[in-house]
């Protein structure tokens, strides 16, 4: 019941539940998980895969804030269908993020281009991208030095400069009714932002480490996407692992799930690190991550507390 609700958002049929209970196979849990993920030769493979895709599309539509109020019906469905096809084909998470961050074209024909309508300027794009895909909350650094972290205003606006070339054509938003079609593209000759306090011109720069060099012609977002999704960037794997863990286990190893920082450490650092490395080795395969967690001993523990773990809400001695 638990794994069916978690993976495909619906209850198992009585026939399926009884067959699982009666089965003597030692690998019956793994077989059920693979079946629900649409990764067996079962005749229902496509049906389960479609249910999985539909369920996880709802989760990511909420995270990306896909809404007809913001995008209009056509834009909303274009983004929805792109997310659903991504999960249906088990698109790797690095490719999913890269396509979203570098999207261009009409919001009606290019689903991920709607990300740039949802986040209407470089500042909004910076906040959303850092929090969604790195678990780094930068909104405080927009106005002053982050009170709990190392990020300064220069870090915020240098990161925002990666989005400075994004331009648009179209009518845009007309609240309370969304406007019509918009087209997003990269404009040559732009690509810098000014520090709001010093007035200094800031070139695109990652928050840490190194990103591919910019040549003045290439869309800076390509370099940004490469840096975000790199296996040398620990935040990218860790925040996704933490999101999925929280979704399946009821509580993230880090809470809130998108606030990874030194002053908010995980309850089990070794587990988060190990799962992140495993996710990287699987080339950011989301189904492999889901399978790894749901097939584990800890996922299958009873949710009923006993006298020794009734106080535990952090270390997963019960589900």
**Helix- and strand-based class?**
mainly alpha
Largest sheet: 3 strands, antiparallel
* Spatial sequence of strands, sheet with the most strands: 1-3-2
Mean pLDDT across the residues is 92
Q: What sequence of helices (H) and strands (E) makes up the elements?
A: HHHHHHEHHHEEEEHHHH
Radius of gyration: 21 Å
User: Which percent range describes the beta-strand content?
Assistant: 5-15%
How many DSSP-defined strands?
5
Can you tell me the residue ranges where pLDDT is under 50 for at least 5 consecutive residues?
Answer: none
Number of helical elements: 13
* Distance N to C terminus: 14 Å
3D shape: globular
Helix content: 40-55%
